[in-house]
Amino acid sequence: MNITATLIAQMIAFVLLIWFVNKVLWGPMSAMLVERQKRIADGLAAAEKGKHDLELAEKRAKEELQTAKAKAAEIMAQAEKRANAIVDEARVNARTEGERQLAAAQAEIERETNRAKEQLRGQVASVAMAGAARILKREIDAKSHGEVLNDVIAQI
Amino acid sequence: MGDRVLSEAAHNSGGGGTVEYIQHHLTNLCVGDCDPVTHQASGFWSLHLDTLFFGYLIAALIVFVGWRVGSSLNPDKPSGFQNFVEMILDFVSTQVKDTFPGHNPLIAPLALTIFLWVFLMNFMDLIPVDLLPLIASTIGIPYLKAVPTTDLNTTLAMSLTVFVLVVFYSIKVKGPVGYLKMFLFHPFGKFFVPVNIVMTTIEELAKPLSLALRLFGNLFAGELVFLLIALIGGTLTVGAAAFFWFPLQVVLDLGWLIFHLLVITLQAFIFMVLTIVYLGMAHTEEH
Q1: Angle at which helices B80-99 and B49-71 pack, to 10 degrees?
Q2: Among A155, B29, B70, B219, which one has the highest count of C-beta atoms within 10 angstroms of its own C-beta?
Q3: What are the distances in angstroms from CA B124 to CA B4, B66, B121?
Q4: Do A3 and B152 touch (CB under 8 A)?
């Protein structure tokens, strides 16, 4: 077991090997591990942030929904009110129209009645004259009895 | 691993064969200042080519695989192997964070390098002891010790590098005066300066030595046990007795293999953690 120049050669090899291992393996790999650690930390932070955002969004959606519901209720109430108003208005209109039509019909009836009365008056005169002629068995002189007749007609 | 042993034992039966077998397996492929008879290094200026070859091969493997993984990282959908490497990295990183006070960008890559390199070099021990020397001998290489961590040069190279770093950071953090003070007044206070110097020097030198020797000792012993188990079938097999010895060898080998899997992992882990601890001690102001 003699100590020889092999010792020196192995020392050189050892130092070189340390240098190479550091250069090709330890350096890149530890850098990568640090980077990976950072990425994982970033990813976790991002996930946490996403969760937080989701919570916020959910809260906001809830609020929005509540607002929308309130708005819808308000609109419904308004619509109901408006519908009631329209119905009322229609009712009023209908009543007015009805009254108007009723008045027109009454006027018509009155007019018709008057016309029938005029007609009847004329007919009554001739009927009365014919009746009187029969009773008297002779012609009534329209001229001479006209005054009487007109008086009778006026009385009807 | 039995074949080689059987054939070797057939050539030279007897105790001499056994010793030769073990010695052969524990001899490095030496070039330079080597003894021509024993093939052991006889001076400092020689190289253990097998140690260097496998050490560099594993280092190159780590760099290549590390580069493959490091250049195709996918942070979103990590593939199977990337997951595995990330797991090791995370494990080392946790050790550093738990043990090391303060921050030094060098410590974690250093710890990772030690863990990977030591573990993989130790893992060579799990390859059948005769396989690689057998392949080597067919292409004309007479000696091959495949596990770099059973060579004290390798473990000492790492522990000395760590020691240099410990001294460097001690001086950098505590200051030259602070470092000197540590030798003078630790551990017994200002009235025992000479004792303190001796004690602290021993303590500081024990750090790299214990690191190197612990790893070397464990792996060397493990290798030796593998060799002894390999010998069971080899030297004792005579005729029908092989039916008894060969299964025993297989069972023992498997048992030691599984146990050793724990040992090599543990040794790699201990080397890494102690390195972090020693460097952490160097980084603290007060001892």
Answers
A1: 110
A2: B219
A3: 18, 19, 5
A4: yes
